Amino acid sequence: MKETVLIRAETGDDHAAIRRVNELAFGRKNEADLVDALRESARPYISLVAIVDCEIVGHIFFTPVSIESGDDSDTAMGLAPMAVLPEQQNQGIGSKLVSECVSECRHIGEDIVVVLGHPNYYPRFGFVTAV
Fold first, then answer.
1. Distance CA 60, CA 56 (A)
2. Is 61 in contact with 35 (CB distance < 8 Å)?
3. Does the residue 15 lie in any domain?
């Protein structure tokens, strides 16, 4: 039987569990440190967690980024990082996090969303390669 995944906004009580998910998913602390730093400085940000059986098993973070081209610049929301505990990967949790977070970006009026990530994973959500 497939377990139910709850996606919700992070709370202050979630920070240690989010850090753990990022460290285990990436095998290092860089991404966890990035989340902590961005949480302090970026506004607005969107931070969602995935919960299975009362345990945080996934996390996704979106913050504002600038896109510059020649003399033009625009703002967007940047996805980084997205993490799922290794033992919970390949079960659709990351997909649920991305879909929910992209929807939340649209809800707050952000129509441009960018990601630096796996080119075979993100196109299923409408991301295209930028040149």
1. 11
2. yes
3. yes
Domain span including residue 85? 6-125
Decide if 131 is inside a domain. no
Query: Is the Cα dihedral 107, 77, 41, 22 positive or negative?
Result: positive
As for how many domains the chain has, the answer is 1
Q: Is the pLDDT of residue 34 over 70?
A: yes
| Positive/negative CA dihedral, 109, 107, 116, 123 | negative
In this structure, what token pair is assigned to residue 28?
A: 């290092």
Q: 98 lies in a domain?
A: yes
CB within 8 A of 125, min separation 6: which ones?
A: 95, 98, 99, 102
Sequence-ordered list of residues with C-beta below 8 angstroms from that of 63, at least 6 positions apart, any chain: 38, 42, 45, 46, 77, 78, 80
Residue at 50 is within a domain = yes
Q: Cα–Cα–Cα angle for 4, 8, 13, nearest 5°?
A: 110
Higher pLDDT among residues 73 and 88, named by residue: 88
- Is the pLDDT higher at 21 or at 120? 21
Residue pLDDT, tens place only, 77-124: 999 999 999 999 999 999 999 999 999 999 999 888 999 888 888 888
